[in-house]
């Protein structure tokens, strides 16, 4: 029997009411890689270093991925004489501080695993020996992690013991311990492992930066199982769908790590669909495949800039399921620039037509709309109908904008050399405001819209001052016109060149400090001229 759920369009524009944990550094859904889905306990420092290297060489770092998370089994079976955690001497002989330094040296961030009770999951299931959970040593462990340079903690309950209130107390204790270190550590919790599922029944937003809503994922489109088992993509979607009010900046529903490319199980269509659905749900995107050997088609999925832009949108809204026919569904959300994202999902084993309308997905009334397919990159116009033929286990995903216009793309530009984002001096998009770099924060003056060859910030266009073409010409904002001095080409190597000048956006003097000016300079593809869309 098929079902239809139609939400009032205006509901899609209501901000999520949930609150974030104090001091949360997870302004956007975290992007990274975790060792568990491919390696399980079979990890060592060589494999983790190779993954960090691959994150850079594959283009994942340039696409915005930054966390390299070492899951369970890194630890020795006992603590040292002072009660401090230590790494397994065979798997990680150089120690976790050295591993963190290696990861940081590549411009990435270091993640690690621990559990709040007596044992980690691997210890609970006797995969490794010992009993080195954090119980009673929360502040000591938090201090240890901070001293190692940890940037992300996965904290896994792994015990049948305790009520919901016990879990709240335990998870809060580690949150406070992490915040007390003064280090910005993303706090990721799982209250469901070896325990009745409390992830989808309680709003953990005031306690953690991201929290597991489901049982563990497996590399199956559907597993047919919804409790005390490994769940497939579709079962997880059903758990996640009603939880949209809890998601937002600094507090994210986590439907578990990605299975894109894991063991080669999913077809290319399933990989795209899985990634699309996690992206539109504003889920943390933590890859689980072996990124040192991933084929080109998997890398293309994980680094699709238009899908990542939907995931990393500054409003941080989780899409709502606005239509549910059982085998086909429509998911949608409003984005920070007023556009919409819609996923037409076919859960079935047969090709199906999936349809909705611009009004139904929350778009304002207009004479026309542009549909930009984030996978095929094709655009078309419609007066309101949105429909596509969707393959089995597939998704067609559109970015929807009002008007019959040239395709636009919205993103921020992060400098490869500085790690900071293109911004506007003074924080106001006005004529003659200088382009500078500043700490990436997703603010309005860091949101760049690419349209008709122009790069727009706050409705103004990036411009070469006084039509200049010489090295050192300032890059400024100015009222948008038709001149070639406002036309830019984003190159495949990450450089951005002016059509009139032929020169590249350059961070003056290769400096890295906030408010360093952005100028035109002869293109060299140096790090101070390379930019990543985030």
Describe it for me?
With 534 residues, the protein is an alpha/beta fold. The protein is 18% helix and 24% strand. The chain folds into 3 domains: 27-311, Alpha-Beta Barrel (TIM Barrel), CATH 3.20.20.70; 320-402, Sandwich (Immunoglobulin-like); 412-533, Trefoil (Acidic Fibroblast Growth Factor, subunit A) (Trefoil). The chain has helices at 36-39, 45-57, 60-63, 96-105, 121-124, 138-148, 164-180, 233-240, 268-280, 296-302, 305-311; strands at residues 31-34, 67-69, 109-114, 152-156, 186-190, 210-212, 252-254, 285-287, 320-324, 328-334, 340-346, 352-357, 369-373, 379-382, 385-390, 394-402, 408-411, 413-415, 421-424, 435-438, 448-451, 454-457, 460-464, 475-478, 488-490, 496-498, 504-507, 518-521, 531-533. Helix 6 (138-148) packs across helix 7.
């Amino acid at each position: 029997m098929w079902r239809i759920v139609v939400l009032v369009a205006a509901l899609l524009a209501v901000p999520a009411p949930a609150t974030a944990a104090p001091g949360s550094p997870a302004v956007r859904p975290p992007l990274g890689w975790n060792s568990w889905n491919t390696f399980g306990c079979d990890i060592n420092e060589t494999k983790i270093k190779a993954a960090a290297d691959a994150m850079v060489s594959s283009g994942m770092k340039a696409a915005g991925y930054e966390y390299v998370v070492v899951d369970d089994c890194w630890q020795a079976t006992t603590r040292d004489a002072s009660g401090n955690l230590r790494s397994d001497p065979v798997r990680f002989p150089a120690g976790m501080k050295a591993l963190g330094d290696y990861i940081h040296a590549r411009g990435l961030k270091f993640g690690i695993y621990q559990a709040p009770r007596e044992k980690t999951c691997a210890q609970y299931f006797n995969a490794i020996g010992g009993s080195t959970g954090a119980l009673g040593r929360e502040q000591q462990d938090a201090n240890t992690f901070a001293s190692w340079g940890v940037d992300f903690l996965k904290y896994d309950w792994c015990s049948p013991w305790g009520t919901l209130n016990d879990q709240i107390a335990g998870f809060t204790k580690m949150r406070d311990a992490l915040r007390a270190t003064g280090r910005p550590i993303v706090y990721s919790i799982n209250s469901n492992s070896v325990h009745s599922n409390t992830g989808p029944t309680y709003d953990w937003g005031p306690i953690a930066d991201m929290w597991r809503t489901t049982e563990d994922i497996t590399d199956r489109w559907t597993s047919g199982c919804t409790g005390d088992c490994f769940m497939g993509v579709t079962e997880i979607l059903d758990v996640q769908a009603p939880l949209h009010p809890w998601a937002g900046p600094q507090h994210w529903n986590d439907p578990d790590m990605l299975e894109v490319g894991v063991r080669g199980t999913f077809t290319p269509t399933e990989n795209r669909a899985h990634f699309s659905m996690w992206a539109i749900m504003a889920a943390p995107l933590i890859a689980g495949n072996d990124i040192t050997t991933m084929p080109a088609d998997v890398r293309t999925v994980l680094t699709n800039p238009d899908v990542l832009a939907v995931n990393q949108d500054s409003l941080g809204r989780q899409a709502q399921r606005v239509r549910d026919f059982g085998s086909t569904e429509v998911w949608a959300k409003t984005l920070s620039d007023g556009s919409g994202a819609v996923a037409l999902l076919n859960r079935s084993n047969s090709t199906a037509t999936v349809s909705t309308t611009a009004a139904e997905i929350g778009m304002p009334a207009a004479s026309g709309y542009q549909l930009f397919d984030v996978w095929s990159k094709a655009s078309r116009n419609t007066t309101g109908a949105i429909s596509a033929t969707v393959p089995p286990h597939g998704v067609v995903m559109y970015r929807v904008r009002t008007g019959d216009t040239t395709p636009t793309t919205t993103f921020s530009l992060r400098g490869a050399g500085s790690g900071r984002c293109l911004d506007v001096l003074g924080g106001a998009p006005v004529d003659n405001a200088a382009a500078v770099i500043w700490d990436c924060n997703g603010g309005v003056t860091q949101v760049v819209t690419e349209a008709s060859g122009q790069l727009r910030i706050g409705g103004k266009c990036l411009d070469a001052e006084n039509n200049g073409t010489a090295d050192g010409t300032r890059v400024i904002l100015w009222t948008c016109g038709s001149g070639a001095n406002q036309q830019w080409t984003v190159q495949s190597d990450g450089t951005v060149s002016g059509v009139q000048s032929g020169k590249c956006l350059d961070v003056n003097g290769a400096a890295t400090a906030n408010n360093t000016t952005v100028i035109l300079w002869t293109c060299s593809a140096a790090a101070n001229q390379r930019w990543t869309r985030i």
